[in-house]
Amino acid sequence: MKKRVVVAMSGGVDSSVAAGILQRKGFEVIGITMCFGLKEANKKRPSCCGIEGIEDARRVAHTLGIKHYVLNFDKVLQEKVIKDFITEYLSGRTPNPCIRCNQYLKFEQLLERAKSLGAEYLATGHYAKIVHGQKYLLKKAKDKYKDQSYFLFRLTQKQLAHTLFPLGNYTKFEVRQLASELNLSIKDKPGSQEICFVPDEDYRGFLKRELARIKGTPAGIYTNIKPGLILDMNGKVVGEHKGIPFYTIGQREGLGIAMGYPVYILKINAKNNTIVVGNKEDAFSYGLLAKELSFIAEPIEREVALRVKIRYNHQEVLSRVSPLGKNRLKIIFSKPQFAVTPGQSAVLYRSESVVGGGIIETGLTHTEIS
Length: 370
Known about the structure:
Number of domains: 3
CATH class of the largest domain: Alpha Beta
Radius of gyration: 22 Å
Strand order of the largest sheet: 12-15-14-13-16-17
Number of helices: 7
CATH superfamily of the largest domain: HUPs
CATH architecture of the largest domain: 3-Layer(aba) Sandwich
CATH topology of the largest domain: Rossmann fold
Helix content: 10-25%
């Protein structure tokens, strides 16, 4: 009897080929597309969650001859991802919604739906590998440029046991070749935008619209949506910002101030509604504190040397990682890193394997690491 697997099909090339690969391997494949009720805007790139994506996934399923269902996850997206996205920006932090989407929607809600359909596995089009030794290991994909292990650091052993990443041993070029071999209509479809619910990556426009519509965020937090002062490192007023949520650490463009040299955002203080700017060299940190930790196998219980990624497209840096109580880490870089951003994720690697990670609480100055 064939093993049943549910494939999260977005209508893109990667998830479609993942379904094709598993079918070739002899699995009984069922495609599920998560619908979020998102409106189709005038997007330059396709959304993975809109009507177009649903129709493309349906066509692919028809070509492969597999069952396909569309399930509404709008409420979960709003509660677990979008509400957090807004609250984090209002608090002066820069969130990573893709990590929360993987944590709460794909590998929690969708995995449970897969099991209810009698499936042994949930598969996605992520570029990553799962290796089973004494415990399940999450490893980088063959295609290092496309590797998405960074976004998956919150997966648990129980989830990894029921997850497949069919693209882990393929490059993007090879995946497109397979799409042609499988005669899939989406073989030349461009990649989707980074955040499915933010049209054309205009998060500021999205925040403005949502803040005008959504009620029920923490009391008093709307006080951050008003102009405030931009200060230099000495506390001197050098300009005015348009509202805390519209800025991020390391930002240089759109500040509307002229100081005779390039300036970058160093700190965002939501409580005082102020932003501090300075030279680029002042935007480097010597380490960071991380909270809300998650580990693939074993937690870190003593100081260890690991490589750390402070955002997805960031070069890993060798670091000393030390536990601070049960749910915090202190990370000291081997060399200073630019724009360590609260709200983003610090993900820890040992060679090709993901050890775990956490949410960046704050960057550390030279004096704070000692």
